[in-house]
Design goal:
Radius of gyration: 25 Å
Distance between the termini: 29 Å
Helix content: 40-55%
Order of helices and strands: HHHEEHHHEEHEEEHHHHHEEHEH
Number of helices: 14
Strand content: 15-25%
Structural class: alpha+beta
Length: about 350
Amino acid sequence: MSQISAAQVKQLREMTDAPMMDCKKALVECGGDLDKAIEHLRQKGLSKAVKKADRVASEGVIALEVDAQQATMLEINSETDFVAKNDHFKALVSKSLEVAKTQGVESVEALYQAPVEGQTYEAYLHSAIAKIGENIVLRRLAQLKAGGHEALNGYLHANHRVGAIVKIAHTNPAHAHKLKELARQIAMHAAAMKPVVLDYHAFSPEFITQEKLALVAELEKENEELKRLGKPLKHIPTYVSRVELTPAVLQAQEEAYKQELKEQGKPEKIFDKIIPGKMERFIADNTLLDQRLTLLGQFFVMDDKKTIAQVLEERGAELEDTLSISAYVRFEVGEGIEKKQEDFAAEVAAQIS
């Protein structure tokens, strides 16, 4: 049996919120492999999601500038939050955004070679690092431009730690100015709700299978507590993504509803008034993964009865146009960066020995 340290158990506990003993058991069963232990807990419904707090090493800011036809967003990381508030750091961020925008660069590598104050941006950055006295990293850059049939806008949160850009494609160029505010609202939604991908087409069959196991286990675990409290139980879905709701699946469900209505003695002439609402509810109940992870599948924060996809469809109908999101980018400071974990006990022991 693998020797599992208290530090490993503590780390898994902090990342998953699972009970301490369950964390220890998971690590033992998975031979001390942290990633496997996390997935093990998820499939048992003991962990909703891996906390990202301990994985985020960097401080810093997101910077964003949007004009009529172009949006520029970048992430600059620092080692400490204190330096991120420093005037020299703020000046560096401002200059970086200005150079990226005016030079029209579309990657970090291209920006490094861009001219600024008689030198390359890379040399300028190194001199800024020497002045600030802390390592600074230009981590990500996004440059989006709107064509004649696109409306572009973005949103930067007040704390400058999260930003998003959304581009809406349409068929009538005259509608661009009318759709800029909608693009900003959807970007604001994305900043708050953290969709990982645009839509369910990004999901692989393997990902769907894995996430379904974890999601069902999570709901079943919640139902145990709800049952104990005498509260209504949550629905356990048969499907979790729109990608699983094939035409055959939807047709079979519609036929099942028709049969149900017949057995209830409802006249067939009112079926078309009842079934659409039931089908809408069926789709909502069986697309929980989309609602968590996809921009188009999430319910709009400004109208939680409609998904982003439905909002686009309705707005398009009002304008007699066809709308779609042609580009979506979201940055959050430090997202996905592994944090270096210091083992102070081991460090002290090493120095003593």
